[in-house]
Amino acid sequence: MKEFWHKHNLRVHYKQTDQMGVVHHANYVTWFEIGRTEMMRSNGLPYSKMESMGLMLPVLDVQVKYHKPALYDEAIGVFTKIKSQSAVKLEFYYEARRLGKAGTPLSRDESIEGEPEGELLASGTSLHMWLDKSWKPVRLNSRAPEVYELIQNISIDSNR
Predict the structure, then answer these.
(1) Is 18 tagged catalytic?
(2) Given the residues 18, 61, 109, 132, the one annotated as active site
(3) Structural domain count of the chain
(4) Cα–Cα distance, 151 to 57 (Å, whole number)
(5) pLDDT (average), residues 134-144
């Protein structure tokens, strides 16, 4: 069974590193958020659209496992897929991978099939809950069935 991922490319900036040129651990959570929002956008559901529909998707939990350090100016790929989903919650899985040494050109974002490329640097998950603007939980299948269907299709593609 092959998996489908969204791949977002970025470069390690100087401000993200410590004196040794190593990426500070907190940046991986930011990279995961970027990967998640770009995955949603690439599937026709930018956060601005969700918010205009009265939907919010706050984080309930974030987990990160650090494997190897990213270094200044390296090319990084943030690979994102939906791990699980229901009418009220959505969980993402991420991998940050080294795609090249300092100065390596970045490619465009893309959807990929199969094992992500590059050296694994960090992996993790984030769990989210669907809420309305008054911070009350909503069942996405009732509140926005078209969004629920879209999420199911992304999830199926991610977990084929």
Answers:
(1) yes
(2) 18
(3) 1
(4) 13
(5) 96
